[in-house]
Amino acid sequence: MTDLTDRQLHILKAIIEEFIETAEPVASETLDKKYNLGVSPATIRNEMVKLTSSGFLKQPHTSAGRVPTPIALKFYVDKLMKLKELSVTDEVNVKQKIWDYRNEMDHLLREATRTLAKQTKAMSLSATDEGDFYTSGLGNILDMPEFYDIDITKHLLDTLDEYDYWWKIFSAFADPQEDPLRVLVGEDLGGQLLNQCGGVFVKFSSPSHQGAIGVIGPTRLNYPRIIPLVRYMGNLINDLAKSW
Predict the structure, then answer these.
(1) Domain Heat-inducible transcription repressor HrcA C-terminal, which positions (predicted)?
(2) Which of 1, 177, 181, 229 would be a feasible disulfide site paired with 202, CB 3.0-4.6 Å?
(3) CATH number at residue 34
(4) Domain boundary residue, one of 58, 80, 102
């Protein structure tokens, strides 16, 4: 999977970042105009054909452009993206919102979920091993073109009634030796129902409880911005949870 040339990596990164920004299939002409790739439009087209045949891009039926596959988006998260530094303003905003609730798990998680939805402009959810489940930001989802498809939206909404569905996913990355943050794309979220979705989640723990909090949206989530926010929130909750 990593035997792509530097040029292919460069083109793939540009396609993914354009797709994250626009939600539209990306055409070679767009890449040629907007990104300084240093190669001819014909070369860009040829490389896009190769990236399609190797499973990184797909061509929607009604479009001349290409969109990245879940494989490409995972590869982008693992190898290509540059995380955006979380600004001091963002950190302060997040901390201020939840600080007053630091001694009450229920209130803190409710407010943390709401804050994460507001900061990421996606939907957020959190759960604990006690069976608590919080969601926020459903309106953000409905602003995204992917969720104009009623079937995708209905599947996502149906899972919001299923604590067990989410806790099973969160429990799968409980190894304390591993990074507590996970990026889940497509099938990682449990097969067909959510294969148009992506999520970024982080585990947290207190002396007596475990939980997870994160963000879900389309596969083209703005991972470079969302990952630092979710990680910061997880670290903050971990610090505050010591007293629970």
Answers:
(1) 94-227
(2) 181
(3) 1.10.10.10
(4) 80
Q: Is 164 left (phi over 0), alpha (psi -120 to 50) or beta?
A: alpha
Domains in the chain, number: 2
Q: Are 234 and 226 in contact (CB under 8 A)?
A: no
Do 74 and 101 lie in one domain? The reply is no
With CA atoms as reference, report the closest residue to 72 among 15, 6, 145.
15
Distances in Å between the Cα of 43 and the Cα atoms of 28, 55, 87, 105, 197 are 9, 19, 38, 55, 31
What digits encode the pLDDT tens for the residues 77-108? 999 999 999 999 989 989 998 999 988 999 99
Q: What distance in Å separates the CA atoms of residue 22 and residue 220, rounded to the nearest whole number?
A: 9
Q: What is the DSSP letter of 149?
A: S
Query: Does residue 231 share a domain with residue 118?
Result: yes
CA–CA distance, 222 with 95 (Å, rounded to integer): 21
Residue 198 in 3-state DSSP? strand
Secondary structure (DSSP) of 26-73: BPHHHHHHHS---S-HHHHHHHHHHHHHTTSEE--TT-SSBEE-HHHH
For the entire predicted model, the pTM comes to 0.91
Total count of residues recorded for the chain: 244
Coil, helix or strand for 228?
A: helix
Per-residue model confidence as pLDDT tens digits over 116-133: 999 999 999 999 999 999
